[in-house]
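Anyone up for a design puzzle?
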């Protein structure tokens, strides 16, 4: 296993900010304590062994699970032998009822067809072409925050608004058929409802047995469906009249598999639009929220960021290549608080990972939340140190030790879109305002609700620059 990646020589460990997180457990929880804890907050169930051992295999409530934190063995699971591992039933039971059978949940040939069809939509050239729209959303966000000079804002809510603005400017350029704030609230309600892991899902109880979370999520899921149906109907009419804008929605509706010429079915189109709205915007909003929280507690990092954006910006906005430190801040925020805290796969056939045999049907897990804080891979892993992602320090990070967007065939198709969006929005924010955590504010703790978010939102004081 790789040795810890060293921090730049100038890094002052003692003065770096270490965000509060649930402490690792000394021993695994018993069955009933585990079921209660995993429903409340799954990231609070990891033990000390998980953060120090390259492999941990154990029998528990969900059967045999092997957690892999060795980068070379992660490569084996997610890349070299990916065909032997499919998404496990628990993930599909939690996500599919709301997100449908899009890229996030589809399997087999259905997934391969969707991936081939959608890949050109997220090409580097296409994503770079959205920089102007993202800069426009960033400028709007900066003006909104600056008007709150001397006050405060729920940063989590503001980042949700901003990322929905980006979606409207890049995917739905003729406008959303609903108030974006209402859509944002529906996304939050949906993830809050389906996020807690239901014991019925842990034990594999058939899907026809009602789950409380899914019952609570139904109104939000119906709202998504109505919004998406109207979006598709409007856009198809514009395409028929040859008046449709060339945004991501038009590209999605017109997309064809390069191998077969086959387009996506209506259900596949709807599932992927819902995925882009619910999952795509949520991960970026959370990355920005955690980045701003860490910057509010690290004056030196915040000052370095402000100096960079003051030197790099123009009237037209920013370019990502001029913002290496802003990008490093986002990457470090996603290291500490990865958008997807764990990836789980089910073995289709027997395998061997190092010294451990993986039985057919058992679950193999890669947990970015654990991996990114693993004490054998990272020096001072609990500290917020953006410099890890600059220059030679960035080059020294093992490829499969840092997985904010997954890896292998199922790596997030929108990762370049999300990273570009987050960096540009952060630059506009840093040029306009500075944030501080109000005195006496309780610790900000991460809670896993599909994604990682602050447990009670994040209200920061605002000072206009």
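Challenge accepted. My sequence:
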């Amino acid at each position: 296993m790789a040795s810890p990646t060293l921090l730049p020589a100038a890094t002052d460990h003692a003065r770096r900010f270490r965000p509060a997180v649930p402490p690792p457990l000394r021993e695994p929880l018993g069955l009933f304590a585990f079921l209660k804890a995993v429903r409340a907050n799954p990231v609070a169930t990891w033990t000390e062994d998980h953060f120090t051992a390259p492999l941990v295999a154990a029998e528990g409530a969900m059967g045999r699970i092997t957690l892999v934190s060795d980068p070379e063995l992660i490569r084996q699971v997610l890349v070299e032998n990916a065909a032997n591992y499919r998404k496990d039933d628990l993930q599909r039971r939690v996500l599919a009822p709301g997100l449908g059978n899009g890229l996030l949940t589809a399997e087999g040939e259905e997934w391969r067809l969707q991936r081939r069809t959608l890949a050109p939509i997220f090409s580097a050239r296409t994503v770079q072409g959205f920089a102007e729209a993202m800069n426009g959303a960033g400028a709007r966000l900066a003006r909104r925050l600056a008007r709150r000079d001397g006050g405060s804002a729920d940063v989590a809510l503001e980042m949700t608004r901003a990322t929905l603005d980006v979606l409207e400017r890049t995917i739905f350029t003729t406008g959303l058929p609903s108030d974006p704030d209402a859509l944002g609230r529906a996304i939050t309600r949906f993830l809050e409802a389906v996020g807690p892991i239901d014991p019925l899902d842990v034990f594999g109880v058939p899907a026809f047995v009602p789950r409380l979370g899914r019952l609570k999520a139904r109104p939000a899921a119906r709202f998504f469906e109505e919004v998406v149906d109207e979006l598709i109907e409007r856009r198809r009419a514009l395409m028929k009249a040859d008046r449709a804008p060339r945004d991501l929605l038009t590209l999605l509706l017109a997309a064809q598999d390069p191998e077969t010429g086959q387009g996506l079915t209506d259900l596949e189109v709807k599932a992927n639009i819902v995925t882009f709205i619910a999952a795509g915007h949520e991960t970026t909003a959370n990355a920005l929220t955690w980045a701003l929280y860490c910057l509010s507690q690290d004056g030196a990092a915040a000052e370095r960021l402000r100096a960079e954006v003051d030197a790099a910006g123009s009237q037209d906005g920013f370019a990502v290549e001029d913002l290496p430190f802003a990008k490093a801040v986002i990457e470090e925020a996603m290291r500490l608080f990865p958008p997807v805290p764990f990836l789980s796969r089910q073995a289709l056939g027997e395998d061997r990972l190092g010294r451990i045999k993986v039985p057919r049907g058992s679950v193999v897990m890669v947990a970015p939340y654990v991996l990114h804080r693993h004490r054998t891979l990272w020096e001072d892993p609990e500290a917020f140190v953006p410099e890890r992602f600059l220059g030679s320090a960035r080059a020294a990070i093992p490829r499969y030790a840092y997985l904010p967007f997954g890896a292998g065939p199922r790596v997030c198709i929108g990762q370049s879109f999300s990273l570009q969006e987050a960096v540009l929005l952060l630059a506009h924010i840093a040029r306009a305002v500075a944030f501080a955590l109000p005195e006496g504010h309780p610790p900000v703790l991460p809670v896993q609700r599909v994604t990682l978010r602050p447990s009670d939102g994040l209200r920061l004081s605002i000072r206009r620059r």
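A detail worth pointing out: The chain has a mean pLDDT of 88.
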